[in-house]
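stage 2 :: seqdesign
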C-alpha cells in the first residue's frame, strides 16, 4: 500500500486526538469520579449507575434528533468543516469545564457531561463523513481501521499521565486530593483533544458536496426527506442500517457503562484504571488487524467475528464475580471494539454516494444514536428494578443476535452507488 497522504494522516490523527475523551471521560476517570461524588451524596450504587445510563441515553437522543438535519446542511459546499469545528469546540470546552463543577454536585456533573457528549459525538458525525474526502474507496477499510488503531495508541498517553497523577494523589505522594487529580485529568483531556485536532483543521478539506441554495434550512429539509426516500430505495443501505442499529447499541452500551458496572462489582478504582489502560494497549493492534483481515476475508466476515465476540462478552459478564473475571472480559472487548466500529464506518462509506456523504452519515449516526438510547436505558431500568446490573448486561445479547441476523442479508459492497 502506498504511503499515506497528508489528508489521510491528518484525518487519522483526529482519532488520536479525540480518543482521549473516549477513555478518560466516557469510560474511565469521569465515571469513577462521578460514582464517588454520587456515593458521597448518598446515592446508591445501582441508582447512580442507572442515572449515568439515563444521561447517556439523553445525550444520544439529542444527537439522534439533530444529526440528520445537521448532516444535510453540512453537505453543502464549504460547510462540513464549519459544523465539525463548532461541535469540536463545544465538546472540548465543555470537557475543560468539568474541572470547575463543584465536587459535591453530581447532577451538575451529569448535565455538563451531557454537553461534552453532544460535542464529541456531533463532531464525529462530520469526522466520519470526511472519510470520503480523504481517501479512495479501496483504501477506506484500511484508513478507517488505522485511525482507530492510532486512537487507541494515542489515548494511552494522556491516560497514563492521568492515572499516574490520580494514583500518586491517592497514596499521598503528591500534594493533591484524589478529586483534584481527577479534575486535572479532565483538563489534560481537553488540552490533548484540542492540540491534536489542529492537523485535521489545517489539512482536511471538503471535496464532495452539493451546490448551496438561497434558503439553506428549507432546502436541507427538502433534501433530508429526499435522502430518506433514497435510503429506502437502496435496500442494501437500509438493511445494513437496521443491522447496525442493533449491534452497535450493544457495543456502545458496554463501552460507556463498563466502568460503572465494574464499580458495582466491587472492583477498586485502581484496578479499573489499570485494566482500562491495558485494554487500550491491546485494542490498538487488534483494530489495525481487523482492517488487514477485512482486505483478505471481507469486511462483512470480520463484522461477524466482532459481533460474535461481543455475544460471548454478554454471557461472560452475567457470571462475572472477581477482578480476574473483569480482566478476561476487558481483553475480550479489546480484541473487537475498535475493529467493529472501524469496519462499520468504512463499510457504510463504501455504500453511499460521496457527494451526499453527510446526509447518509447523518442517518448512519441517527441509527447509531437511537440505538445508544435503547441500550443504556435498558441497562438503567434493569438495574433499578432488580438491583443487579448483570441482568442488564446479559440482556444486550438479544441486540447482537438481531444485528447479525440482519447483517446476513447485506451483501459486500461491490459497486458504487450513484
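stage 2 :: out
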Amino acid at each position: 500500500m502506498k504511503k499515506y497522504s497528508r489528508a489521510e494522516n491528518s484525518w487519522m490523527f483526529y482519532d488520536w486526538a479525540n480518543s482521549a475523551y473516549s477513555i478518560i471521560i466516557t469510560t474511565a476517570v469521569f465515571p469513577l469520579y462521578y460514582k464517588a461524588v454520587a456515593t458521597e451524596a448518598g446515592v446508591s450504587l445501582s441508582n447512580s449507575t442507572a442515572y449515568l445510563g439515563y444521561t447517556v441515553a439523553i445525550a444520544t437522543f439529542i444527537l439522534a434528533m439533530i444529526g440528520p438535519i445537521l448532516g444535510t446542511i453540512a453537505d453543502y459546499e464549504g460547510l462540513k468543516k464549519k459544523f465539525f469545528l463548532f461541535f469540536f469546540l463545544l465538546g472540548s470546552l465543555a470537557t475543560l469545564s468539568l474541572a470547575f463543577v463543584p465536587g459535591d454536585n453530581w447532577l451538575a456533573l451529569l448535565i455538563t457531561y451531557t454537553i461534552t457528549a453532544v460535542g464529541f459525538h456531533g463532531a464525529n458525525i462530520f469526522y466520519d463523513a470526511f472519510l470520503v474526502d480523504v481517501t479512495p474507496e479501496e483504501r477506506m477499510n484500511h484508513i478507517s481501521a488505522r485511525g482507530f488503531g492510532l486512537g487507541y495508541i494515542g489515548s494511552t498517553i494522556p491516560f497514563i499521565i492521568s492515572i499516574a497523577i490520580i494514583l500518586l494523589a491517592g497514596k499521598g505522594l503528591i500534594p493533591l486530593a484524589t478529586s483534584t487529580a481527577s479534575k486535572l485529568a479532565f483538563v489534560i483531556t481537553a488540552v490533548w483533544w484540542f492540540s491534536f485536532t489542529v492537523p485535521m483543521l489545517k489539512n482536511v478539506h471538503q471535496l464532495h458536496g452539493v451546490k448551496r441554495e438561497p434558503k439553506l434550512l428549507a432546502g436541507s429539509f427538502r433534501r433530508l426527506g429526499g435522502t430518506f426516500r433514497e435510503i429506502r430505495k437502496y435496500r442494501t443501505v437500509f438493511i445494513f442500517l437496521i443491522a447496525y442499529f442493533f449491534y452497535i447499541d450493544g457495543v456502545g452500551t458496554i463501552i460507556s457503562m463498563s466502568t460503572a458496572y465494574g464499580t458495582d462489582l466491587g472492583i477498586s478504582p485502581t484496578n479499573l484504571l489499570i485494566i482500562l489502560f491495558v485494554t487500550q494497549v491491546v485494542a490498538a493492534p487488534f483494530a489495525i488487524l481487523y482492517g488487514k483481515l477485512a482486505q483478505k476475508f471481507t469486511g462483512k466476515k470480520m463484522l461477524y467475528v466482532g459481533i460474535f465476540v461481543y455475544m460471548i462478552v454478554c454471557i461472560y459478564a452475567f457470571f462475572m464475580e472477581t477482578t480476574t473475571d473483569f480482566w478476561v472480559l476487558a481483553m475480550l472487548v479489546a480484541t473487537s471494539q475498535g475493529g467493529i466500529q472501524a469496519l462499520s464506518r468504512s463499510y457504510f462509506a463504501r455504500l453511499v454516494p460521496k457527494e451526499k456523504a453527510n446526509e447518509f452519515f447523518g442517518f448512519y449516526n441517527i441509527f447509531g444514536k437511537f440505538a445508544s438510547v435503547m441500550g443504556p436505558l435498558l441497562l438503567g431500568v434493569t438495574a433499578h428494578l432488580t438491583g443487579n446490573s448483570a441482568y442488564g448486561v446479559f440482556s444486550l445479547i438479544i441486540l447482537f443476535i438481531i444485528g447479525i441476523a440482519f447483517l446476513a442479508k447485506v451483501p459486500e459492497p461491490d459497486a458504487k452507488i450513484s
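stage 3 :: structure notes
- The chain is about 80% helix and 0% strand.
- Residues 89 and 281 are 28 Å apart (CA to CA).
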